[in-house]
Amino acid sequence: MTQSLPPKSLVLYADDDPDDRMLIREAFEHYAHSVDLKVFRNGVELLQYVNKAQAFATYNSSFTISPQIGMLFFLKKRTYIDAGIRYETLKSFNNDNERIDFWAAHVAFAFNL
């Protein structure tokens, strides 16, 4: 019986410091064998890579945007209510029509412990 290898994950890393880029490369080579690491000198190069039409053709990946806003309502000493809302959209790199949008709300009460 043949055993297939799990698909590789893709990690994109941008840093303007050559020493940091070298450390990340060495760490991934030593500890993360199932990861395809792409290192860029700056964010502009990374975004140019992402914007290429076929850059993610072999990866089943998505791009996530999730802005959120929240508020703390202080009731007493060390007791408060945390509330907020969040909008999230997930977009596939491979298919322009594949997109998931949703809203979420959270409310939490912090006890005076």
Q: Segments where pLDDT lies below 50 for 5+ residues?
A: none
Alpha-beta classification: alpha+beta
- Major beta-sheet overview: 4 strands, antiparallel
- The SSE order reads EHEHEEEE
Number of helices: 2
Domain unit count: 2
CATH class of the largest domain: Alpha Beta
Which term fits the overall shape? Answer: extended
Beta percentage is over 45%
> What percent of residues adopt helix (DSSP H or I)?
10-25%
Span of the ends, CA to CA: 57 Å
**Cα-atom Rg, whole angstroms?**
20 Å
Estimate the mean pLDDT confidence.
Answer: 79
Extended strand count: 6
What name is given to the CATH topology of the largest domain?
Rossmann fold
Quickly give the CATH architecture of the largest domain. Answer: 3-Layer(aba) Sandwich
Throw out a few tags for this protein.
113 residues; alpha+beta; Rossmann fold; Carboxypeptidase Inhibitor, Chain A; 2 domains; two-stranded parallel sheet; 2 helices; 20% helix; extended
Description:
The chain contains 2 helices and 6 strands. The chain has 113 residues and is of the alpha+beta class. It folds into 2 domains: 9-59, Rossmann fold (3-Layer(aba) Sandwich), CATH 3.40.50; 65-110, 2-Layer Sandwich (Carboxypeptidase Inhibitor, Chain A), CATH 3.30.1040. The model has no long low-confidence stretch (mean pLDDT 79). Helix content is 20%, strand content 45%.
